Amino acid sequence: MTDGGTPQGWREHIVLYAALAANLGIAVAKFVAAGITGSSSMLTEGFHSVVDSGNQVLMLYGEHRAKRPPDSSRPFGYGRELYFWSFVVAILIFAIGAGFSIYEGWVHVQEPEALRDPLINYIVLGVAALMEGSSWTVAVREFAQAKGRSSWWGAIRDSKDPSSFIVLFEDSAALAGLAVAAIGVWASHYFNAPWMDGIASIVIGGILGLVAILLAREAKGLLIGEPADPEVIEAIRRIVAAHPGISGVNHVRTIHTSPETIFVAVSADFDDALAMGEAETLIETIEQRLRHDMPRLSSIYIRPEKKEDAVASREEGDGL
Asked: Are 31 and 46 in contact (CB under 8 A)?
């Protein structure tokens, strides 16, 4: 994978760059509109865009840090650092985005601002919807290509690259927030009830809170460690079992060390007739085959183990 500064790197990060560009422009416009009209929901939306912009910067930083090669202090690489920053993003959305939105809404419900001409709010919301919609379209297109035949939710649950679904969630929440803000501005003027604009801010905060919880749940799974897809595990098992000298494969255990790299540990029952030197050569041959067929396997460990020993070890572990 190339550096983010190359043309290929720009392609890899197109979703993040598109979202960042949209959010920076939208944030300025929302704050200007909020300052002129005193709208609570517009102010909330402004901070929403600022938080989203910060999130994209953190994700780009996480992707950059995750590409560092392994060293003595991190022999399996830094790939999972991306998962850490994904979790930080979820916390920021919840603590800053949702928290501020709900607080700001409550303040305006208690002490509503005097109503002013809402035209600039509608203009800014319309422009923001176009920009967010463009970013959302890019995110949907990229994720649709990546998910293949999987369902949308299934692809999100199985995805090992948080940057793709985080932007998709953020943009979806942003479009929903814009719709709520527009309804809040309209309702407050139509019913001559300024406090309804504060209610819109609280609803936006609720949307952000829900998104943050979903993202935190997915990021937590990646941070703790998720196995490779079942198809990958089955392919590893099949390759190992196909070699003469292997009586059977006891288990294949995997964990993603980054979206594109996998650690794998294999327990296999070797033919009793193999000498020590022959077993070592066989292990080397299997590892070379696995690396050739499956380049994402960054670290491979193959352990000779009798089937009955592997079963006993597993049962002992289950009893702990």
From this structure: yes
Token readout for 240 is 């190992």
**H or E segment at 257?**
strand 246-258
Residue type for 167, please?
V
List residues bridging with 302 in a β-sheet: 266
DSSP 8-state class, residue 302: E
- Interatomic CA distance for residues 257 and 79, integer angstroms: 6
Domains assigned to the chain: 7-224 (1.20.1510.10), 230-318 (3.30.70.1350)
CA distance 27 to 83: 26
Half-sphere exposure of 207 (CA within 13 A, CB side): 23
DSSP, collapsed to helix, strand or coil, labels residue 267 as strand
Burial of residue 27 (CB within 10 Å: 0-12, 13-18, 19+) is buried
Is residue 201 a contact partner of residue 105, using CB atoms and an 8 Å limit?
A: yes
pLDDT digits (tens, 9 = 90+) for 143-196: 888 777 778 888 888 888 887 788 888 889 889 988 999 999 999 989 999 899
DSSP 8-class letter at 69: P
Return the C-alpha torsion angle 173, 179, 184, 186, nearest 10.
170
CB 222 within 8 A of CB 86: yes
Backbone angle region of 227, left / alpha / beta, with phi > 0 → left and psi within -120 to 50 → alpha: beta
H-type alpha helices, the chain: 7-12, 14-37, 40-66, 81-92, 99-110, 119-147, 152-158, 162-190, 195-224, 230-241, 276-293, 307-318
Tell me the pTM.
0.76
Cα 254–chain centre separation: 20
